[in-house]
Amino acid sequence: MNVKTATGLVLLVILAMAVVPATVSDGVAEDEITISIPGLDDFEYPESTVTPVISMSSNSSKTLNIYIHNKSFEVVTVFIHGSSISNVASLSPKATDTSLDPEKTWTTALTIEAKEYAKTGSYELPLRIDVNSLSGTGDFEATITFELAIESAYNSDDLYNKFFGMFFNTLDGFMGEPWFASLVTMVVLLVLNFVLCYLIIPLLTNRIKSGVTKLEKMQLKKSVTRIMSVLMFMYSLGLCAQIIGASPTICHYIDAISTFVYVCVGALLAWRIFVFILNVLFKGVDDIEIEGLDSSLQPLFKMFGQIVIAIVAVTIILASFGVDLAGILMSAGVVTLGITMGAQNVLGQFFSGIVLLATRPFKKGDFIKINDKVYIVKKVKLMFTELYTWDADQIVTMPNNSLTAATIVNVTKESKEIRVFVYMSIAYEADLALAKKLMVQAANEHPHVITNERRSPPSTRLTNFLDSGIEIRLGAYVDDFDSSGTYAGEIRERIFELFKENGVEIPYNKMEITLKQPCDGKKRPDDNFD
Question: Is 474 buried (19+), middle (13-18) or exposed (0-12) by CB count in 10 A?
Answer without folding.
Answer: buried
